[in-house]
């Protein structure tokens, strides 16, 4: 029986070996990677380096969410770029910080290995063509550095409540390039795969796994659009348009995605690919799967979706179809960045009652999480006249990206509430006047040094708010001019030593592995910029090594020899 999920890939029950009959295998390989984003590319490259035959399949033409990202890789422990910038980081300092952020989502042993391997993994990327530099952006914390700057504090390293015992160090390594550099990084990885002899199978949606009589995963069935066909060209155009316009017309793009799915179902050819040593699932998360979001993370249904169309949960559902265990499906990273403008965190963020609920200087996902899960997706950023003037000046002349400055200006000039006094502002916004006044009184006492800040905000991020009129900027999830993005973090539970997918008893499912956001990994508790791509490299290489050495213990069945 099929499992249809909106406009996503149709996932069927596994195909048993005894059901193959006379169906031929379209092709065969040692290692089959499903999903050609950063994790899939790293897995394919690592497996290919072990002298095995590797095929990588993708529902589209590769890249996924990785190619749409900022191309930031979280790396530390004393990288060449950190040293050139004058920072003496260490694997222990990186571990101490990440242990606080990851909250036990992986074992200490795995986290320590991730930190110890950080330098070598960045060098590995450089060896495949990616470049990294040590230039730091001026002015302070930013959600993404402007062109010309490639090393920055990409998480909460500067926030006192998150800092470890060692001096903070910038660990966000942005791939050298112009604009959003995820496409640059992915371009290097894709080219490296092709040079290495990895064989791509594009515009092929995996719709079920194939298992043998022992329960071992031995391949997959795909719905494939023939290269160069009219349907394949239309499929590519529709998918590209949906990716390009998602920020501006999400409803229209959802309809495009439905057309993409309809094309696959109406015109796709069913083909079988044999994997002698194993299959790696690396299709990304499931932010575009409305059914999964509704069932597991309903608080995030209104968020702007961060990712690619292929983030439809297909890898997760494929794993579950053969008994895989999934974890943390309710964990979603919601990004409410209020920097830049750099002075915005000097304001206060309050809920609908007028109460502060966070330290405003934290990383965007650290703020977005309680906003969505605890405050119903509604909050205000409160500024006084002086701070608003400073923020407008910074947005106009600070040299920020358009996607940072334009929404900030629109928020402060168009979608803003105003009151001559805090009480008037509270009335305008529907807050409780006494609560907002108390929030401002307590905050100003901390800003003046009379009392500690209730949420541990550092002195450099405090500023007295006492010059009327007062302004409330709507930073709620439903504000269309200030989107609150989100991506999923949960996935398949894997053996942390090799990436093997585990069943509900904690036992590995023979022949099945996973990497990237399809699997539980370093970034599966709370996202910070660059941590997901770094985990794609770490977990992808781990799975690629393991599968290449994964020779079946039982005898090969002659029926599984590729037909021609």
Tell me what the structure shows.
The chain has 3 domains: 15-69 and 181-333 and 485-551, FAD/NAD(P)-binding domain (3-Layer(bba) Sandwich); 73-171, no CATH class; 337-474, Flavocytochrome C3, Chain A, domain 1. It is an alpha/beta fold and 564 residues long. The radius of gyration is 24 Å and the shape is globular. Mean pLDDT is 94; it is low at 1-5 and 555-564. The protein has helices at 38-48, 64-68, 80-84, 91-102, 108-116, 118-127, 182-196, 230-245, 250-267, 290-296, 314-321, 364-373, 385-397, 402-413, 422-429, 433-447, 531-548, and strands spanning 15-16, 27-34, 54-57, 72-74, 151-152, 172-174, 199-201, 204-211, 217-224, 269-281, 304-305, 326-327, 332-335, 348-350, 380-384, 416-419, 470-474, 485-488, 491-492, 500-502, 508-514. Strand 8 (204-211) and strand 9 form a beta hairpin. Helix 4 packs across helix 5, helix 13 packs antiparallel against helix 14 and helix 15 packs across helix 16 (433-447). The strands form 5 sheets. Strands 1, 2, 3, 7, 8, 9, 10, 20 and 21 form a 9-stranded mixed beta sheet that branches. It contains 17 helices and 21 strands.
List keywords for this structure.
564 residues, alpha/beta, FAD/NAD(P)-binding domain, Flavocytochrome C3, Chain A, domain 1, 3 domains, nine-stranded mixed sheet, four-stranded antiparallel sheet, 17 helices, 21 strands, globular, disordered N terminus, disordered C terminus
């Amino acid at each position: 029986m099929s499992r249809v999920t909106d406009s996503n890939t149709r996932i069927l029950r596994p195909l048993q070996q005894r059901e193959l009959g006379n169906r031929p295998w379209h092709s065969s390989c040692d290692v089959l990677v499903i999903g050609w984003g950063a994790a899939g590319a790293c897995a394919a490259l690592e497996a290919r380096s072990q002298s095995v035959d590797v095929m990588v399949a993708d529902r589209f033409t590769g890249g996924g969410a990785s190619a749409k990202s900022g191309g930031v890789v979280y790396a530390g422990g004393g990288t060449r770029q950190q040293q050139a910038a004058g920072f003496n980081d260490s694997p222990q300092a990186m571990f101490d910080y990440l242990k606080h952020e990851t909250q036990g989502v992986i074992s200490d042993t795995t986290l320590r290995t991730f930190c110890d391997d950080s330098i070598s993994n960045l060098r590995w990327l450089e060896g495949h063509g990616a470049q990294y530099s040590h230039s730091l952006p001026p002015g302070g914390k930013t959600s993404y550095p402007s062109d010309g700057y490639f090393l920055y504090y990409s998480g909460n390293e500067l926030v006192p409540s998150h800092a470890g015992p060692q001096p903070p160090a910038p660990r966000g390594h942005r791939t050298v390039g112009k604009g959003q550099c995820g496409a640059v990084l992915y371009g290097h990885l894709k080219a490296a795969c092709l040079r290495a002899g990895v064989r791509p199978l594009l515009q092929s949606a995996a719709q079920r796994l194939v298992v043998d009589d022992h329960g071992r995963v031995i391949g997959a069935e795909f719905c494939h659009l023939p290269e160069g066909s009219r349907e394949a060209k239309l499929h590519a155009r529709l998918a590209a348009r949906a990716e390009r316009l998602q920020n501006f017309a999400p409803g229209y793009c959802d309809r495009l995605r439905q057309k993409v799915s309809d094309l696959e179902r109406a015109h796709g050819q069913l083909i079988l690919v044999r994997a002698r040593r194993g299959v790696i699932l690396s299709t990304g998360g499931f932010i575009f799967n409305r059914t999964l979001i509704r069932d597991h993370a309903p608080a995030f249904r209104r968020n702007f979706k961060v990712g690619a169309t292929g983030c439809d949960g297909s890898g997760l559902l494929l794993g579950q179809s053969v008994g895989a265990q999934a974890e943390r499906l309710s964990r979603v990273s919601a990004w409410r960045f209020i920097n830049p403008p750099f002075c915005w965190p000097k304001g206060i963020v309050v809920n609908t009652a007028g109460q502060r609920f966070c330290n405003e200087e934290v990383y965007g996902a650290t703020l977005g999480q309680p906003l969505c899960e605890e405050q119903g997706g509604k909050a205000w950023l409160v500024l006084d006249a002086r701070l608003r003037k400073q923020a407008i000046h910074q947005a106009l002349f600070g040299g920020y990206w358009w996607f940072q400055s334009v929404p900030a200006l629109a928020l402060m000039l168009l979608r803003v509430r105003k009151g001559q006094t805090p009480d008037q502002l509270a009335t305008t916004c529907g807050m409780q006047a006494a609560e907002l006044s108390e929030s401002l009184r307590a905050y100003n006492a901390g800003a003046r040094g009379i009392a500690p800040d209730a949420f541990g905000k550092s002195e450099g991020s405090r500023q007295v708010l006492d010059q009327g009129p007062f302004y409330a900027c709507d930073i709620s999830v439903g504000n269309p001019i200030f989107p609150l993005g989100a991506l999923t973090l949960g996935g398949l539970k894997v053996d942390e030593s090799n990436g093997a997918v585990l069943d509900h008893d904690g036992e590995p499912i023979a022949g099945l592995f996973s990497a990237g956001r399809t699997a539980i990994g370093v970034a599966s508790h709370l996202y910070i910029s660059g941590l997901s791509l770094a985990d794609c490299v770490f977990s992808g290489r781990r799975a690629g090594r393991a599968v290449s050495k994964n020779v079946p213990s039982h005898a090969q069945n002659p029926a599984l020899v590729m037909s021609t």
